[in-house]
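Give me the fold.
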Amino acid sequence: MTLRIGILGCGKIARLHAQGYKTASDLAQVVVCCDEYSVELAQNMAKEFGADVTTSWQAVIERSDVDAVSICMPPDQHAPIALAAAKAGKHVLLEKPMAMNMEECKQIVAAAEQADTVLMIGQNQRWQPEHIQIKELLDRNAIGKIVALRFDCNQFISRMYPPDSWIFDKAKSGGGMITQTAVHKIDLMRHFFGEIDEVSAFNGYTGLNPGYKPGGNEDISAFLMNFENGIVGEAFYLFAAYKVPIPTATGELTIIYGDKGVIHNVLGWHIYSTEIPEYSGGLTKLDIHQHPYTDSVNAEVRHFLECIRDHKEPITSGRNNLGTMATVFALYKSAETKTVVKVEKTQQ
């Protein structure tokens, strides 16, 4: 059976979803494209599929010929749309961040469970081929017990989006560097190493991005994490970086320290292992190539469709993503209160 898809929001990330559905044409067909803010964007996307066009997401949800939706709208609209979709019996691929607060996140998960529909969150870093290969090494205990990790990301957000983009508006986006970008790596580290127990964060403002200011979105964030298994993690994020100072395989620094070695991605993925002879002579460059970003979203979309077909829970299900969002909101609470904050327990 071919699943019939509605794409809600037709901007940058939606174009990646659209490409994913193209590559999964054996499983799905996009039948309608919706954009509340630009009918032209919806029309351009719809041409690729011979799909209908609308500016009303409610009209898409009401259609009997739509089985599932990709929600690529601003975060402040995620909860209303996802709840309406569940009530209508639609499966949902929901872009990150899941919602604006934990209560909304829980409501979305509960609604999908009550409706017995698939709810998947767009945490595509789990699907990057490079990260899949790194997880395989970690699962082999290639560097032993993990004791610590570091990661960072450097971008210049005002050079990536027009000044009127919702991304600069806290009321629509829910936050800056943490909720828009760090959420990806937080989710990936949970995927690699399990749940996070407590966090401490400091947020800042460069004045170089519109809307990123005290009381608005943060464009600097530095934070620490204690994992439940004892791993200590450190992260640094900047949305006003003129240049990326550390050349990495994925554009984001990742260093994983084990008691029997280390893995990092500076100038390509490298490993040193005291246990594996082929990696014991010093830092060894791994045969892991950088893949186009689109590959991860293609894989994400296919997994979503396969989970609908096979009645399975996605790897990045809404319930699993509650742990990621609990960490995100704990980081904001820590930055606001200048305290170490326990992360809400969400996994059963």
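The longest helix spans residues 318-337.
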